[in-house]
Amino acid sequence: MVGKGKVHNNLGELLHTKPLPTGSLKVSVDIALEKDALLPHPDDVSDATLLGDAIGSFVAWPTDLIIVGYETPTKSKAKDKGIAREIESVASQKEIPVAKKTEISKRTGAKKKNPSKYRACLHTYLETTDISDGCVRLIPMDGAIFGFEYAEPLGKEDFDQILYHTQLSVGVINTYMRYLYDKLMGPRGLEQRFSFLNPMKTNLTEMIRKPDEVRTYVVERFMADTDREKLFFLPFNTGDGGHWLLVAINPFKEIVYYLDSLHKDWTTYPAMKTIVDTIIQTVRAQRKIQVPKRKANNITWNRVECPRQRNNIDCGYYTLRFMKETLLMDRTDIPSDYFDEYRCAYYSKDQLDEIKEELCQFIIELQVL
């Protein structure tokens, strides 16, 4: 027995938008008893090849290697209300011949991964620079990302946040959004369906102090794409380095998706809701959309049951994963119980480390150091 999880298979089930391999079921991994056990079907989306890499996510597992109802000494404490928990299962590899394991290893190049490879590289690079003396590096931001061209400064504090897992700054958040724009949106042609709003211009402090400037910026972004349905990502910060959450706005359908890893709702930040509603109403007027007076405030807000953070520093990483997973699903609607492919009670350490590795690799590739 190598692990314990849940079976989630339904007729026509997909795994990461692809059909399941023949003779396999869709399984979520809760516990890895043997973290170095090879996955029978490595995950092409996350590059996971070992069972330990797949904790908290879905994998395909051969039906004949799933034992339903088996109890192990260790029980999962996950309380994900969005996933059916009644079908307990244990995954086995004891029936896989040694030759087959070798074949899997050769096919995937499976070996124990270094989960901090690029973080270690970035740390080494930084030691040779003047960053520790207070200097900064500039990340170029194309005008298409946020609607204006500028350079995002990153200093020692920002790099330390990535290397040592502390609460993320707006500079790191913006840099990851450029990563998403370069690596996901551009190659997949998603710029026509998704866009970003700059959180420096739209945080709670700015909304309270400079509401007119916030409205002007967001309305201009929305009005640039009034002829098509589009989802705008707004990583929202409660101000002065506070909590991060994601507000995703579809101004065409007048729907707002609210994803808060603390599982609060928008009533916690009434100033934010008021200004977002006002912006949507302004765009409606500029598009000359006629709405009965009794429905003038009829803007839909959907609170999404997204994965929940378990400490007071992970909110930024969760917000970044929410954007990434929405782009991977290529959907401008976000289900109230979140996407089946990524639904879980909370993100695992590996899933959060993935964000840091992507950031470090991207910064190294930009050659700004």
Q: What spatial order of strands do you see in the largest sheet? A: 7-4-1-9-8
Q: How many E-type strands?
A: 16
- Report strand %: 15-25%
| Structure class | alpha+beta
Low-confidence stretches: 70-88, 94-112
Mean pLDDT: 85
Largest sheet: number of strands, sense, barrel closure: 5 strands, antiparallel
Cα-based radius of gyration, to the nearest Å: 22 Å
Number of helices: 10
Shape: globular
Order of helices and strands: EEEEEEEEEHHEHEHHEHHEEEHEHH
Helix-residue proportion? 25-40%
N- to C-terminal distance: 46 Å
Keywords: Hydrolase, Protease
Pfam families: DUF8039, Peptidase_C48
Family: Belongs to the peptidase C48 family.
Protein name: Ubiquitin-like protease family profile domain-containing protein
Overview of this protein structure:
- The protein has about 375 residues and is of the alpha+beta class.
- The chain is globular.
- Helix 5 (about 170-190) runs parallel beside helix 9 (about 315-330).
- Strands 7-4-1-9-8 form a five-stranded antiparallel β-sheet, with no helix packed on it. The protein has a five-stranded mixed β-sheet with strand order 12-13-14-15-16, with helices on one face. The protein has a two-stranded antiparallel sheet with strand order 2-3.
- It is built from ten helices and 16 strands.
- It has helices at about 100-110, 115-125, 145, 155-165, 170-190, 205-210, 210-225, 270-285, 315-330, 350-365, and strands at about 5, 15, 20, 25-30, 40-45, 50, 60, 65-70, 90, 135-140, 150-155, 195, 230-235, 245-250, 255-260, 300-305.
- About 35% of the residues lie in helices and about 20% in strands.
